[in-house]
């Protein structure tokens, strides 16, 4: 069985090295929707994959991106200094802040969160199925476990200025 929890955040970025001049050369923002899909082979004592209330650490992680500038750590140092100087909220990422980059990053981070959660109500084999990140109403990227092979980073490389 699979459950889905939806989270939202507002954020800005530039997607360097993409083909569109608008995205590559201009700061712009989106109303992101992040869907987290969690699965289990067996329902817990309450008849659930897991209680949605236990997803608070995931909500807190995604909330750190709300009204933040998502900065790729490969940006020019002068631009990085500008972003840090003029923004109260910055998340510096070791992936491009594209919807694909966000999906991969969130899968990596949420998978770690879920693996560290001890069972409290008979949860069994709870695991992350996928993470879907909507950048617009018509487009999204979705990351799955096999995509972790592309996750050439660690959480220690992520910097939050909040």
Please explain how this structure is put together.
By secondary structure, the protein is α/β, with parallel strands linked by helices. It contains 4 helices and 7 strands. The protein has helices at residues 21-25, 56-63, 77-86, 99-116, and strands at 2-13, 28-39, 68-72, 90-93, 127-134, 140-144, 159-161. A 7-stranded mixed β-sheet has the order 6-5-2-1-3-4-7, with helices on both faces.
Summarize the structure.
The protein is an alpha/beta fold. Helix content is 25%, strand content 30%. It has a 7-stranded mixed sheet with strand order 6-5-2-1-3-4-7, with helices on both faces.
List the helices and strands and how they pair.
Blueprint: E1 2-13, H1 21-25, E2 28-39, H2 56-63, E3 68-72, H3 77-86, E4 90-93, H4 99-116, E5 127-134, E6 140-144, E7 159-161
Parallel strand pairs: 1-3, 3-4
Antiparallel strand pairs: 1-2, 2-5, 4-7, 5-6
Alpha plus pi helix count: 4
Distance between the termini: 36 Å
Helix content: 25-40%
The strand count comes to 7
Instruction: Summarize the biggest pleated sheet.
Output: 7 strands, mixed
Mean pLDDT: 97
Strand content: 25-35%
User: In one word, what is the shape?
Assistant: elongated
Structural class estimated from helices and strands: alpha/beta
- Rg over CA atoms: 17 Å
Q: Give the strand order, joined by hyphens, for the main sheet.
A: 6-5-2-1-3-4-7
Low-confidence spans: pLDDT under 50, at least 5 residues? Answer: none
Order of SSEs: EHEHEHEHEEE
